[in-house]
Every structure is written in C-alpha cells, then in structure tokens.
Amino acid sequence: MNAFQSGLFLNRIPYVKVGSGQNPILVLNGGQAFVRRPTPARALRDAKRISRLLPRDRAIYILGYEPYPPANYGIGTIVVDISQVLREEIGPATIMGISFGGFVAAKLAAEHPDLVREMILMVSAHRFSSEGRRSIDRQIECAWRGDFEGFLDEFGLVFRRPWLNWLLRLRLRQERTRLHETMNDPAIIVRGLHAVAGEDLRRDPAWLTTIRAPTLIVGGTRDPFFDVEAMAETARMIPCSQLKLFERETHMLPVERPRAVAKAIKTFLASHQESRNGDLLQTTVPP
C-alpha cells in the first residue's frame, strides 16, 4: 500500500502526496477544502477517498487552498500559485479539478498549456447552473451571518440515495452544537466562495477554445450545482474533450459511484492520444 505524505507548497498551500513515478497527477480539491477547518486527519481522509479514483502507478498530489487567503483572493490568484508549484516542484502534470477545483483547472489549462498534459473536470464545468449559483449566493449570505446551520442546509439532499441523505442530516444534527469548532472562519469561507462567485463565469466562454489539453468531463445528470447544459457547453467549447454523464447521479457522484468513475478516468488516461484528435465523445451511463 502506498504511503501518504503531507507538506506545504510555497510554505502555505497544503498537500498530500501518494504514490510515485512519472506522469504525476495534481488534484485541485473542491470547496470543502476551505469550508471546514483544515486538520491533518481531514486532509488524509480526503486524500484516501480521492486517490481511489486514480491510477495507483502514478504520483498523486491532492492540494488544498491557502488557509489565510488575502482580501483579493480569486481564481487568478490560485492559478498563479498552482502554476508556480508545477514549474518549481512537480513539472507538467495531469490536472483533475473537483467541483470548485474545476474552475481553477480550466483556467490553468487555458493560461499555462505547457503545464497541463490532460485535464479532468470532476462534477464541474466552466460555470455553475442557475440553481447552483443561487445556492452559492445563499451560502455566502449564511457564512457572512455566521449561520453555519443554514449554510449546511444547502447540502441537505446532495446524495442520490435517500439513506445517505438521511445519514448526512443525522450527522449534521449531531454536529450542530460544535459547528463553530469544525467550520472555518466565516471570512475565509466567504473569500473562497467569492473566488468563483465574484467572477462573471457566464459572460463569454470563448476562452475555453484556447485549451489544448485532452479533457474529460465527468458528471451526473441531476447535479444541482453543474447541470447537463453547463457541462455540455464546456465540452462543446474545449476543442479536445469528452463528456461522460451518469444518469440520475448528483454532485456526490465520485462518492457514490467510485468504481465507475475510476474506470472512466482510467480509460480516458489510457486513450488520451485518441482524444487529441479533437473529437467530442458524449456518453451516458445508466444507473
């Protein structure tokens, strides 16, 4: 079994590494990386879950986000940091962006094509759905007020399977008395959310056409944050892309269908030479 190693890039960006070898994979985590207070146990738990989706014969770096982001924090700031990490520490890599991390991955691929060999957008797109944007706005409002219960209520039905939603609600009820201990500082949460919500991501997606990395977009047809329309638009705009949809799955697709997701990633990485031809392949996976 591969050992997990943790550390800091640029003396401020936390990461967990697993595996070794050439052709590294850099994972840009989702928004939960700045919503909860960062702890070594939480970082290791996330790394174990994410690494199960990826090939075991490659070095995998799972990145968090700056724990004390500056007031002007945004996607551009994060892209500058990640590009520096790649140039100075890792080298060109396959980039996987999960949810929020997908925004960063896409901008990185567009602005630094020499650093991105392949790209995977996991339950993500270049913009939120209308419902997803409304949810982010509500999360920002709750975070500003310090209303962590209201904030977490936005995630009350994120799973497809009812029993998982029941367990999530039970866990949230059990945590209500100590939410201020487990949740991050409201200002940090808001800055992280504003990093994407503060940009007009719907305005003009033409920048996606500059991405040259073979790209796989994986999502569920019932994802409330990134709907099929948003993911399909991303796939149409990126010249060399594949869109793989899982019927009736939600934003928690990687958690509920890890084996199927891992298989899709493995197939994509093994055949990325074909995806360089610029063909768009759209497939729908049954439940």
TrEMBL record:
Q: Where is the AB hydrolase-1 domain?
A: 64-264
InterPro entries assigned? AB_hydrolase_1, AB_hydrolase_fold, AB_hydrolase_sf
GO CC, sorted alphabetically, is: membrane
Which SUPFAM superfamilies does the record match to this protein? alpha/beta-Hydrolases
Q: Which Pfam families match?
A: Abhydrolase_6
> This protein is called what?
Pimeloyl-ACP methyl ester carboxylesterase
- Recorded source organism is Microvirga lupini
